[in-house]
């Protein structure tokens, strides 16, 4: 299970994306990802085991659960477990994976 230090490490790895514009968002997360396109990532916050990606008028809460993971600039897991992929202008991708059964 991802713990506090690994969540802070994730925040540090995602910090270079702050100020960058999202050019594409996809994945099997159950929310509409189209509003993310064209938005600029303003801040990244953590609270306990949760990470928040703050955009102009949208905030995404990330909780990696028991076996979740993330990747920057490389796809490390199968497509079917890809919950959210954010492609940024001028600097690669952020890929979020969750290995849990959705109901």
TrEMBL record:
Extract the PROSITE patterns matched here: FPG_CAT
Q: Which top-level group of life is the source organism from?
A: Bacteria
An example of a Gene Ontology BP annotation on this entry? Answer: base-excision repair
Q: Which GO terms describe its molecular function?
A: DNA N-glycosylase activity; DNA-(apurinic or apyrimidinic site) endonuclease activity; zinc ion binding
Q: Which SMART domains match?
A: Fapy_DNA_glyco
**Family annotation (InterPro entries):** FPG_cat, FPG_N
Record-annotated Formamidopyrimidine-DNA glycosylase catalytic domain positions: 2-92
Q: Return the protein name.
A: Formamidopyrimidine-DNA glycosylase
Instruction: Look up and give the organism this protein is from.
Output: Chryseobacterium populi
